[in-house]
């Protein structure tokens, strides 16, 4: 295929009268000629615009952030007809990022000798397992040679229908467009994250999917009949054994493939089959693709679809492979292998063993460790809980290969329809630090740890779960950690029942987390939070909910302390505790809390706790034994702090106003609310937190 003039070549491809862009609505379907005319008209407008704006710069680059719409597809062809080089970005990419890459790529086009005499069609940004995207130039010749290989392997013709079910800014989505026009096939456009049979005008002949998309289809049995004649082209990530087994069980047609942005997507593929044993491989090289292995067992690819930045079309990859019965299998990446305690750990070997043992999917991520050098953490998917996963690892792996920590793959690790390992690599050390922190405090966490952190301290007779609603409300903007304070919840460590020991534990916690955080405390938790900060704990900000600086008068403090020591004297069983709690929450301090819809559940849960631990905690954390923190506050005028109080909590309303007027703390009042504002008015409470921390 000699593509000397890409514009002329494109004109020939679109000279057909047959249907091109299908729609669920018949009057919206476009033929090849109709689509081309729309693009041609737009190209003329683009040319005129470029003549006005680019006379001096003569910059041929155009950045696009396509959303898989008809307009996006027309724009791609129009810009090519106008002689532009496209840079594809994901939607919502920042203007600063786009500008940075335009400058970088403009320089590359001018200075890269390997690009001389090449007609570059576009740049695809590929990050692979790294966080920093790399711009890959692809020529028209690359795109159409790759397309011919695909079409020949799968026998694509003008009767076929290939919907674009992958993002257009990825090479996989763009290549569906190229394959369709190469053979005069039909296509349609779809949101990659929400594919359903209702979106297709007919059953696809070939449907390119990543494993997550395919899993959703296989798990929805009512969709099976529609896709019965479809061939699934699987790429983009490793497919779990469970998914491949379902393909075989349900007798779907599929092909497993191997490729990369640098080769215009696939260069290897299996035959179309339902057999899981075949689909576990990556098949054989396509036409005019040479595959070999170097001394490290790394794949070497030579193809005429390879980006011009690789001399002679040769890429030495970091993917280790082996052959068996003429099929290639991936066994790991050379740059993923790490040493832990003197032993080489191949992540793919560990992952494959665990998947064969029953885990849906597994991802081993190394994290630095002082003793071992590196240690492995495991991110997993599926229905098993952490204990079951650990048992599978213990039963199927030698001790030195077993991961040290186990985490469910979080939702935020997916960018669209693909899991991004660079996110797992980024968050793994953060999650490990939190797991280590559990040795100091039982805790729960919520959100993405790449966001700002907030540590939450409950009140007297409370527990970490008291913050559940607030954690859910904050999870899109903040990463929250709720702790059980000593003598509360799961924290039965009585050796920590002193202000001094609590201070030491928090200093160690802060060192373990090695991450700046905001500190938020309610009532007793607020007093303790204030004390920690006054004694030197470094925080980004301090938020006090219904908390005071302490009692000024020493005699008053002593009276309060003696009263607190007797608080649980009349309780001997859980029934007594329930009566005490009902009496306790009748205190005017708590306003109408007993009328709250969740109060009964609230009381029932607390009635099951060990009040003896609460009694022990009071001996150390009572306001009667706490120092008066006002002198400390006087010296901390620089403190970034907020106090929150309910308008019907008159006692702490006065305390909050004192903190505001005398010491400069910000103050927010919640209407029609009493002492426990985060329980009574969680949405307003969360909004106040967001407003304060984002200001």
Task: Describe what you observe in this structure.
Residues 52-58 have low confidence and may be disordered. Strand 4, helix 4 and strand 5 (120-126) form a beta-alpha-beta unit. The longest helix is centred in the first third of the chain and has 22 residues, at 32-53. The protein starts with 5 loop residues before the first helix and ends with a helix. The protein has 695 residues and is of the alpha/beta class. Strands 23-25-24-26-27-28-29 form a seven-stranded mixed β-sheet, sandwiched between helices. Helices cover 37% and strands 21% of the residues.
Give the CA-based shape. Answer: elongated
Radius of gyration: 31 Å
Number of E-state strands: 29
Average pLDDT: 91
Task: Tell me the distance between the termini.
Answer: 59 Å
How many distinct helices?
23
Percent strand equals 15-25%
Strand neighbour order, sheet with most strands: 23-25-24-26-27-28-29
Which class best fits the helix and strand makeup?
Answer: alpha/beta
Q: Which spans of ≥5 residues are poorly predicted at pLDDT below 50?
A: 52-58
User: In which range does the helix fraction lie?
Assistant: 25-40%
Largest sheet: number of strands, sense, barrel closure: 7 strands, mixed
